[in-house]
Amino acid sequence: MAVQQQIPNLVLQFFDTxxxxxxxxxxxxxxxxxxxTFCRLTQFDSKEVLGLKEKHIFKVKINxxxxxxxxxxxxxxxxxxxxxxxxxxxxxxxxxIYNNEELTVFTLVENPSIEQLxxxxxxxxxxxxxxxDASPVMIWMTDQDNLCYYFNKSWLDFTGQKFExxxxxxxxxxxxxxxxxxxxxxxEQLNNHEGYSLEYRLRRRDGAYRNxxxxxxxxxxxxxxxxxxxxxxxDITEFKAVQNELANYTExxxxxxxxxxxxxxxxxxxxxEPLRMIASYVQLIKRSIESGKPTDELFxxxxxxxxxxxxxxxxINDLLQFSRLNKKGIPFTEVDLNEVVKVAITNLTNRIADNxxxxxxTPMPIVNGDVSQLTRLIQNLVDNAIKFKSxxxxxxxxxxxxEREIDYVISVRDNGIGxxxxxxxxxxxxxxxxxxxxxxxxxxxxLAVCRKIVERHGGEIWVESEFGKGSCFNFSIKK
Length: 479
Ligand code: ADP
Prior knowledge:
Oligomer: single chain
Strand order of the largest sheet: 2-1-6-5-4-3
CATH superfamily of the largest domain: Histidine kinase-like ATPase, C-terminal domain
Bound molecules: adenosine-5'-diphosphate
């Protein structure tokens, strides 16, 4: 029976305008109608198909799915084409009763074939790879077991390695051994398949270690299954250097502010003191001259004035020297601390001899620094060790060194009067002294100078002491 007899022409014309392929079969599964899109899709002429059984067209059928209420069924199937190829289509079939005739309308939508899918996938992969390779950021991917199976060109260019060297866990050999532990900090995120970020040093092709910021993002399949990580790595060495410089600069500013405060304090207190003395003795001199009978005292008064003036000069010179340390000294060079110690001791020959002091030292390392500042540092410490000697003992001073991981600690130990621990910090502040001028000469600048020199060399200075028994001044200096 011709389909025209079963379905009005208007409906068929309407089917012909469909973008989807339409096929109608009767109750005996004979194909009674195909629309134009069906013919275009399968290359069959409608006459070649009419009268065939539905099963001649639909080949392997899978994924049956019934939408009960409407009696519409969805499935996928291979469809025979005239050229013998097989198309893969999504099919919806729905029953239709017309003039008591049971018909089935099939709507076919083409599904890409596996080959087409493979092609699409390949194209998408190529697109990703060329995008990733063009990126200046290093990109990698891992599988479910967190083994790397992809590195973009930037990564391979950076490490100078071949893909085969980096694959799996090979790339870990490029991470600085001291930074391998950094990965422990993200174990929880890795186990929970969460995003993370961490920093570590990675060896560049030229052997230099660069600071890397790594951001890992989990990759999930459409059904939510974890498929591995995708990560990007950025060389942040320059950024870190600027950050450090900024932090140092801020620290330096803080320090110089503190120093300024100390300078103000010094100006108002320490320098006032000799000035007051000068002023009062000049007053006495004036009175003595005005009385018309200058006495012998006049000379004593003048002596005090001169004494005040020279103390003032000393303070000003010390201050000047101290402030000069602020400016960058000569560039650092290799310095043999054995020579430094020798020169410092030679400069103090007279003081050592006058005080019967014994100065010993162990072999010293070679460091990077400013030789004249380091000489001054050792000299100041040995000078103090002699100055603050005990009245009961001949001064014994030993200079020794202890090697640590990144630096050396140089110690100048004496058997002098010692320092109470409440003063351990104060003594490093400019013009802070624990004794009067009558007891021990000095302006209180020596240790402030020492601290500044040590800090300029990136180290720290501190004191340990047993009050009454001796002190040990230590400073660290980078290897
Ligand atoms: P100055 O020696 O001119 O007083 P410093 O800055 O060198 O100035 O020292 C500050 C203070 O620290 C000293 O006045 C002294 O009280 C204490 N001090 C420094 N070195 C020693 C030492 N080796 N033993 C005991 N006290 C010391």
